[in-house]
Amino acid sequence: MKHRSQFRSGIAQEQVTEESWRIFQIMAEFVQGFELLSSLQPCVSIFGSARTPADHPNYRLATEIARALSDAGFTVITGGGPGIMEAGSRGAFEGNSPSVGLNIALPREQVQNRFQDVSLRFRHFFSRKVMFVKYASAYVVLPGGFGTLDEFVEILTLVQTRKTRAIPIILVNGAFWRGLVQWFRETLVAEGTISEQDMALFQIVDEPSQVVDAIFDHYAGRPITPSAEEAAVLMDL
Question: Exposed, middle or buried by CB within 10 Å (0-12, 13-18, 19+), for 183?
């Protein structure tokens, strides 16, 4: 009878072989994303709930923000799905600059919206998330759930640890975010798990024009696209 260690070894070897071949699929996702998005800078990534209906005020707000960004010369990147993602894609699609959707296959919720000039499909969350960060000159975060929070906290961590360049991180709809920001200050800062200075990594606005103004204010007197030093940092993202 085969020994258990031999049996486990056989299973492990099959997994290693499958995972090794999967590396090529991951490489293909990165190469496709790098080649397409590098030619579309400057970009702004927009996030928010996939569950927001088209008649919701946040949907209309996201559409207006994306249209304002597109008309200001920014390629708008969204997750390509419904809800706030669709609203962001739609506003950009109706504007003067490209709308890019970074689509991913999920068991539910992720249905590709039709407002995309450029559509990329990903199987792996981590390669998709790199694309959101690598070419973004700003992050605009509207009300959303776990996925939205994940993207928000990840960009905060990357900027805080200097694994990416400092970019505007903009929360939209202060009423929605007030409780989370209060918890950051009263618990995380108070406990010393983040510093008071970390609270300055993001800002809160309510109007589409404030989003555009916040981005241009951040880059006043310097290029929006990465400097040589910043580009070197992004190579190690």
Answer: exposed
